[in-house]
């Protein structure tokens, strides 16, 4: 154990640039070896958008560069990591922005990000004319949930301080929940319950939201003028929104047979089969989201090249919805599914 005291001023570039005490300390008790956790550097930002939580994604690894979208599988699930590192809310949309000339970019590997590493740790140098444009919510997010549409509610009411707070259950009702679910691009609220997604330490917001249910964003709602005196433990709002109607089978002999289409970012597109590993096991997720029972067959359907959604198998098999796993692409090969047509719960009756 080193027993001389470091005497840094805090401005030095390296620890050994600091002076130290001239003599050794006589004792150093067991269990007192220094452990240190440094915060991650400010290495992610969104630029050129209407707010600090909207724009072209840039990462700093020595220098700031945009993140490449070309030949990418950026999905809402993956974009959630970038929104989180930018200290913004939930991921709302992922788009491609094209420029006329190529320039230096960072390419981010999906498997690296999904292992829990930061974007900076996953950045590799490349060049591209296609960049990633993200929209994250400015003031609302759901954390610790099982999908992008569930979790403990946190709000940021002061954009200058970026201070996120949980919400007290007594200050939040069904109409407030409808607004949050709509703001995040989810379906109607299905479960509203305190401490559903874990307990939370302060801060807790203690002003009551007073939404009419028709507002576009939670911060468009009025709120009570004064703080509540108390907020009991175990009452942080947990919210589950239903998934939007974002999966359908079209052009077949029944509603449970046809070309698989997913609605993402407001647009219905077929799902690509090209270079894919669609199996009955993976197709079961699509049949389940269509309320069509189990998967019976998976076929490849050829057409002209068109805009499609690519769906990554590892994303779906982790339990995420097809919408959360969708990334934009082009293909002439699309997926044709046949499902049993009867929800599994009914088949057991």
From TrEMBL:
Subcellular location field: Secreted
Gene Ontology CC: extracellular space; plasma membrane
Disulfides per UniProt: 8-18, 112-122, 211-221, 315-325
Superkingdom to which the source organism belongs: Eukaryota
Coiled-coil region list: none
Keyword entries, A-Z: Disulfide bond, Glycoprotein, Repeat, Secreted, Signal
Transmembrane segments: none
SUPFAM superfamilies with a match to the protein in the record: SRCR-like
InterPro entries, A to Z: SRCR, SRCR-like_dom_sf
A GO MF term: serine-type endopeptidase activity
Cited Gene3D superfamilies: SRCR-like domain
One BP term from GO: zymogen activation
UniProt domain SRCR: residue ranges: 1-39, 44-145, 140-242, 247-349
UniProt protein name: SRCR domain-containing protein
Organism lineage string: Eukaryota, Metazoa, Chordata, Craniata, Vertebrata
């Amino acid at each position: 154990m080193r027993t001389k005291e470091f005497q840094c001023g805090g401005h030095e570039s390296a620890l050994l640039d600091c002076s130290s005490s001239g003599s050794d300390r006589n004792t150093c008790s067991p269990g007192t070896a220094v452990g240190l956790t440094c915060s991650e550097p400010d290495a992610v930002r969104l630029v050129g958008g209407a707010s600090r939580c909207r724009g072209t994604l840039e990462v700093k690894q020595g220098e700031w560069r945009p993140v490449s979208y070309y030949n990418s599988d950026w999905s809402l699930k993956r974009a959630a990591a970038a929104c989180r590192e930018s200290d913004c809310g939930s991921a709302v949309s992922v788009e491609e922005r094209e420029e006329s000339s190529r320039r230096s970019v960072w390419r981010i590997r999906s498997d690296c990000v999904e292992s829990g590493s930061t974007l900076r740790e996953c950045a590799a140098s490349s060049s591209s004319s296609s960049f990633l444009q993200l929209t994250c919510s400015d003031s609302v997010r759901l954390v610790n949930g099982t999908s992008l549409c569930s979790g403990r509610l946190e709000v940021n009411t002061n954009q200058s301080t970026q201070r996120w707070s949980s919400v007290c259950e007594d200050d939040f009702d069904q109409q407030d929940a409808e607004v949050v679910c709509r703001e995040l691009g989810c379906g109607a609220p299905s479960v509203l319950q305190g401490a559903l997604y874990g307990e939370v330490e302060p801060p807790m917001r203690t002003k009551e939201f007073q939404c009419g249910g028709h507002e576009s964003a939670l911060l468009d709602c009025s709120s009570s003028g004064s703080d509540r005196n108390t907020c009991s433990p175990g009452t942080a709002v947990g919210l589950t929104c239903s998934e939007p109607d974002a999966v359908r089978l079209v052009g077949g002999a029944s509603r449970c047979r046809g070309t698989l289409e997913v609605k993402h970012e407001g647009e219905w597109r077929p799902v690509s089969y090209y270079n894919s590993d669609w199996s009955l096991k993976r197709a079961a997720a699509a049949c389940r989201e269509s309320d069509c029972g189990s998967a019976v067959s998976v076929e490849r359907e050829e057409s002209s090249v068109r805009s499609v959604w690519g769906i990554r198998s590892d994303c779906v098999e982790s339990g995420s919805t097809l919408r959360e796993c969708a990334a934009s692409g082009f293909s002439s090969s699309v997926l044709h599914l046949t499902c049993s047509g009867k929800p599994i719960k009914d088949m057991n009756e």
